[in-house]
Amino acid sequence: xxxxxxxxxxxxxxxxxxxxxxxxxxxxxxxxxxxxxxxxxxxxxxxxxxxxxxxxxxxxxxxxxxxxxxxxxxxxxxxxxxxxxxxxxxxxxxxxxxxxxxxxxxxxxxxxxxxxxxxxxxxxxxxxxxxxxxxxxxxxxxxxxxxxxxxxxxxxxxxxxxxxxxxxxxxxxxxxxxxxxxxxxxxxxxxxxxxxxxxxxxxxxxxxxxxxxxxxxxxxxxxxxxxxxxxxxxxxxxxxxxxxxxxxxxxxxxxxxxxxxxxxxxxxxxxxxxxxxxxxxxxxxxxxxxxxxxxxxxxxxxxxxxxxxxxxxxxxxxxxxxxxxxxxxxxxxxxxxxxxxxxxxxxxxxxxxxxxxxxxxxxxxxxxxxxxxxxxxxxxxxxxxxxxxxxxxxxxxxxxxxxxxxxxxxxxxxxxxxxxxxxxxxxxxxxxxxxxxxxxxxxxxxxxxxxxxxxxxxxxxxxxxxxxxxxxxxxxxxxxxxxxxxxxxxxxxxxxxxxxxxxxxxxxxxxxxxxxxxxx
Length: 520
What we know:
- By secondary structure, the protein is of the alpha+beta class.
- The chain is 47% helix and 17% strand.
- It is elongated.
């Protein structure tokens, strides 16, 4: 079991709960757990290093006190007894002679509360030394209750995305509208986000006092792991006079909370990796025809992202390709973090030069996928110094539509790249006519039996006679029979365009879609 210095436990519980009567013979006594001194059988089986709570021990009764000290000495444990300070000199002399570390518990403090607080602090600290980083994270709610009981306020613990991950629920806690809304919604209310993001709180190395008009006074401390900010811990008090000098306690609580939140982050990261692997497997078609990999949450919206313009314009340069690949890997991380921060549980995968993000429709975030994509593209432009295009699919609910959505997205991204389209967010449904035409063109190019041979004849005639029938017909078709627009694109007179079309019809047998425009 993990040991905690007795002195650290006392500091965490504060003087109004316990204080040291005797440090004992050991230079740095340690505590590994809490046990009630109410059963001789249980105490005899208790491992060394526990804190024995002397329930029922009357310090005014020398016999009872001596028996409790003897038991603690025999089991190499510390002892806690109810004792008002200052303690009688005779009691202190009796304790010191045994070499047992003894704590004085506030006589007004119920034993059940002392047990709960001490157990919570020890359980939280135990997370610090579990091997291989395999920490369970403990119970942040228990930690919040323990801290609330010590400081006499109402505690809430938030992460960096303004999500309330734990809060105290002790009876008769102070509460205001901000706390009520936050607990009901499990996140910082919109009108309190500015207070939550107060720069004084997030840049301070100590506890900061904060109060907004109409709300309870609060003490706040940032939760850090090294230089990494994980969240913040806030304690609300009934009024200004009730705010104690609890800085050390809140700072210690923030350190313990960091262990929990790191464990929770590892758990979230493991779940994210599982979702990402499942999405990759699904998009690569390795899940069979109908099996949906575990971790792929549907219905959802599939989004594809690619760089708007090739970096450096030289795809053959290995250095450029490596930098582009590194940027796409960072884009995956950025997409996941942004999606999480806005309430989604995404899955992401990098396949080739396209990044795919699946955003579940069920339990979706606070903003629409469109707003999320705009935010992500803006972040990528500033953080990665590159511009991207994003294409979102309609909502899909099964594996087959998901694979079709990927094919549509791939076609849309390639099409936008060929067009040198502006960076931004697009939807496959908006691009549907162009995608259909693109597929038809590809089908005709790939199958010689679908071609009439007219284009080849037009180009051969143009090459031999220095005419421009092919370019004229192409401009006319691109503008859907609009003579004015087509002639403007070719910088020729409208009658010249009509004459060319009529002559092409005579020479090659190609009929224009609109006879009226050709003949009028």
